[in-house]
Amino acid sequence: MKPTVLILPGWQNSGPDHWQSRWEALHGYTRVQQHDWMLPLRGDWMTQLEEAVLAASGPVVLAAHSLGCVLTAAWASHSRNTHRVQGALLVAPGDPQRDELRAALKSWSPVPLQRLPFKSTLLGSHTDPYCSFARAQQFAHAWGSEFVDYGNRGHINAESGLGDWPEGLQLLNQFMKKENA
């Protein structure tokens, strides 16, 4: 059975030019909606992800960006339904423990650093303003993710000029094939 791809945007959601929104429109992937994109509460976001996983008719693959990566780790550390997740593509994780983000993202600290119970690939950028490259590597190591050095691509979002981001989609498709093998 082909997995359902769940899109997990970060804080403030992903706008229309973001690769996640483009993938949703082009490929019919399912965006996990949140009650409040501007004042995100970790427990609330985890509940929304849990509901989306349970609503899927079969296995799921997570396509997470920024705070969505931290959501994946937080949800995985509590859910009894992680066996439904086939894998996760984690792109440019945000770091809510950074001084400039801590006040706005109070409920997101500390970031869970337990190994994810499913396979994952994490892409980190040297010029990400929301997470240092070293911290992205730390997340990948702690979560047991394959780490991809994505160079100097900022926050790997619409401002990075990725468009439909065929390279990322190829990574997702290879990841999904690898998981189905």
Q: Could you give a quick summary of the protein structure above?
A:
This protein is of the alpha/beta class and 181 residues long. It has helices at 19-27, 42-55, 67-76, 99-102, 133-143, 166-180; strands spanning 4-8, 30-31, 60-66, 85-93, 119-124, 146-149.
Explained architecture:
This protein has 181 residues and is α/β, with parallel strands linked by helices. The protein has a single domain (4-180), classed as Alpha/Beta hydrolase fold, catalytic domain (Rossmann fold). It has six helices and six strands. The protein has helices at residues 19-27, 42-55, 67-76, 99-102, 133-143, 166-180, and strands spanning 4-8, 30-31, 60-66, 85-93, 119-124, 146-149. A six-stranded parallel sheet has the order 2-1-3-4-5-6, with helices on both faces. Helix 5 links the parallel strand 5 (119-124) and strand 6. Helix 2 crosses helix 3. It is globular, with a radius of gyration of 15 Å. The two termini are 12 Å apart. The mean pLDDT is 95.
